[in-house]
Give the backbone structure.
Amino acid sequence: MSEPLLQVAGLTKRFGGVIAAEAIALAIPAGECHAVIGPNGAGKTTLVGLLAGEIAPERGSIRFDGRDITALAVPGRSQLGLARSFQITSLFADFTALDNVALAVQAHDGHSFRFLTDARRDAALREPARAALEAIGLGSRADARVDKLSHGEQRQLEIAVALATKPRLLLLDEPMAGLGSDESARMVAMLRRLKGSLTMVLIEHDMATVFALADRITVLVYGRVIASGDPAAVRADAAVREAYLGEQDARHG
Amino acid sequence: MKAALKVLGVPLPACWLAPRAALPAAVLALLGLVPVYAAATGDPFALTLFGRIEILSIAAISLNLIMGYGGMASFGHAAYLGIGGYAVGILWKEGITSGFVQWPAAIAVSALFALVVGALSLRTRGVYFIMITLAFAQMVYYVTQGLDRYGGDDGMTIGSRSGFAGLVDLNNATQLYYLCFALLLASLVLVSRVVNSRFGLVIQGARSNERRMRAIGISTFRYKLVCFVIAGALCGLSGALLANHTNFISPAMMYWTRSGDLMVMVILGGLGSLFGPVLGTVTYLLLEEALSRVTEYPGLFLGPGLLLVAIFLNGGIESLFGARRRE
């Protein structure tokens, strides 16, 4: 069997005395939608930071597409095809929706040392950007400034920006955060369409989403992987039920 | 269909056609007519005052490029005025009077200085960035104070203006004025093109959200550094003009309060708007001039005025005229 697209081994990070990640191992083959779940404080955010390159691990390695990227900085990982969305919307707030996506297209279209031609009239940037917005259902909002978009629209735009970098792996950090039920359903439908064509790592709190989308699930508690497997196995796992699902079930009645 | 307006074959951005372009157009037209007024009234002072306004407008435009569009609040921008001026003055003193040597030298040395300052400061942010840029500017200030051969602390009178082999005669006040005017227009066109280019969008994106910029795959440092160098070079040109305009260089050109003046002009006019720095410079220098005629303490009135602009006019003077910023 060929090497998984993303392979994480022994990944460890502590903040002071707090263990945020302890010997985490993941193997995610191309095309899989892999969810990472865990209660608050389980280290999900740290894992996103480690995978995206914002946090340097103390030990362990990250291999992506057969390459060791443990020491590679954030922009380099993006150039290799590892894209991410942010849990707390992180966009160019004073740019239009289309500008946001076009800049992501531009970032993967060679260097940007072009000084005199108007980038907003550059069909090589605008057309793919417009297509990405249409695909995500934001075509009619292309010229609206990001700070005038609704929260749900901003969440969609997060995904469109990530997709515009033509990623091979999409790291989704709680894409449902703050969405209403209609918006959540639309987001799930959209992510379902992406499944198969794109490898996804889905960090998510919302259990319905996770079980609707994930091919496999990894459960984190206190920075450790306590279970990993297909949804049915994880749902049946006693340690998981105790640590996480039981608590969730109770909270959601 | 509206035909694209062109200046010297360069199509102007669409925003120049909008109604809000009326104010910049009017200000530029008035600046262009100052020599006519001066000739009609026989009052050369207007040429001196407005020539200075044009030159410092170019400096403010260059500061706005990094501070307004790029979010790099350099508190040492007057250093480039001084370096540009000293390049002209030192070369004159050493017998090189050709502007074809002096001005490229002013631009090149300023660019080089910006490269060094930028390389060391752009990895820091906020107050540290401000302190490093300030420290470098003060360093140049003290170095020029020690240059006894070039006037030391007192400064030096430059005996002749830059020569351009008969193409332009800078000893003719009107020609000098119109050269400054042309370079002001060229600076505006240049910056408007740069900020809307791929490069410019990276610069503005880095100001808006550095983290997102990195996540989509762009290391911003080298772009910011190049932007810093462009701004330094443009301000160096402004310094070469200033030395020609006053026939004088002194360390005072780059004292830290002058850097502060430039920042005030940019913020007053409207941070990150193309024409804001010109409006800010015109307003600031005219107010200073007017107040200095009626009071010994113009700062006493300028200060509270600036405070009011900062509190009530978030987008500077340009925002009064409906101009939207940073688009």
